[in-house]
Amino acid sequence: MTDFNAVAASWDDDPAKVLRARQVAEAVRAAAQLTPATSVLEYGCGTGLLGLSLAPHVARVTLADSSDGMLEVLGRKLAGGAAPNARALKLDLTHQPLPPDRYDLVCSLMTLHHVHDLDRVLPLLRAALVPGGTLCVADLDAEDGSFHGPGAGVHHGFDRAALGARLRAAGFGEPAFSTVHQIERVVDGATRRFDVFLAVARAA
Ligand SMILES: C[S@@+](CC[C@H](N)C(=O)[O-])C[C@H]1O[C@@H](n2cnc3c(N)ncnc32)[C@H](O)[C@@H]1O
Predict the structure, then answer these.
(1) 95-135 per-position pLDDT tens digit
(2) Beta-bridge partners for 195
(3) Which residues neighbour 169 within 8 Å (Cβ) at sequence distance 6 or greater?
(4) H helices of the chain, where?
(5) Which of 48, 57, 97, 161 sits 20 to 30 Å CA-CA off 85?
(6) What angle do CA 53, 97, 24 make, to 5 degrees?
(7) What is the pLDDT of residues 12-26, one digit of tens each?
(8) Long-range contacts for 79-86 (Cβ within 8 Å, ≥24 apart)?
(9) Atom of ligand 1 nearest to the CA of 24
(10) Ligand 1 pocket by C-beta < 6 Å: which residues?
């Protein structure tokens, strides 16, 4: 398992992660028809790279994560005035209940492959949306496990059709998938490219 507390302080030092979040934010903006009235929940926000990119275009953003280290880095950004309409929230839906607020958009980036109990969490993300609200999930396409390496204990990306079926079972309409980014990683001395999809689904 990745120790996100240990990597939080240097997370934003990687320009590839910053670029990834920027590209995904553009794709989310294109897909989700954001307005100055839109409320957003980012689940698994890390240091807030995605949600803080969306914040200037919406009414309010809740940035949720289970890692104290990530939330500490994010908290420093918010204290420095990064986004007056954003707030941080410690939240792990694998064992906590859903807070009462409801959102027009729920988004996540590179988080769901770390969430084992997706069949518990996906319906909660659906329940976090207002009727007709939008889910935007960006994550790895199915891969052979080399993205994290042996023993990482994560999902090896997601098969689009299989994830689509899980989303429908969780109460979403038919998701639309597109490829929005590629991550380059050196695996066994060779550069590999891993596709990142964006799945967009409405709360049915
Ligand atoms: C690969 S990082 C991505 C962070 C951020 N979205 C980004 O793209 O820079 C995955 C994030 O998901 C968070 N996370 C993992 N499992 C989680 C869970 N069950 N509930 C909430 N957050 C979780 C981690 O703490 C971490 O910040």
Answers:
(1) 999 999 999 999 999 999 999 999 999 999 999 999 999 99
(2) 182
(3) 119, 122
(4) 4-7, 15-32, 49-54, 68-79, 118-127, 160-169
(5) 97
(6) 20
(7) 999 999 999 999 999
(8) 82/48, 82/52, 82/55, 83/48, 83/52, 83/55, 83/56, 85/55, 85/58, 85/59, 85/60, 85/61, 86/48, 86/51, 86/52, 86/55, 86/60, 86/61, 86/62
(9) 8
(10) 4, 17, 21, 44-46, 49-50, 65-67, 70, 91-94, 109-111, 114-115
The amino acid present at 12, given as its one-letter code, is D
Residue ID of nearest Cα to ligand 1 atom 10: 111
Cα 170 from Cα 125, distance rounded (Å)? 9
CA angle at residue 145 from 194 to 43, to 5 degrees? Answer: 70
Backbone angles phi, psi at 108, to 5 degrees: -155, 155
CA angle 40, 25, 91 (to 5 degrees): 40
Strand partners, 198: 138, 178
Which residue, by CA, sits nearest to atom 5 of ligand 1?
Answer: 46
Helix/strand/coil for 28: helix
Instruction: Categorize the per-residue pLDDT at 151 as very low, low, confident or very high, splitting at 50, 70 and 90.
Output: confident
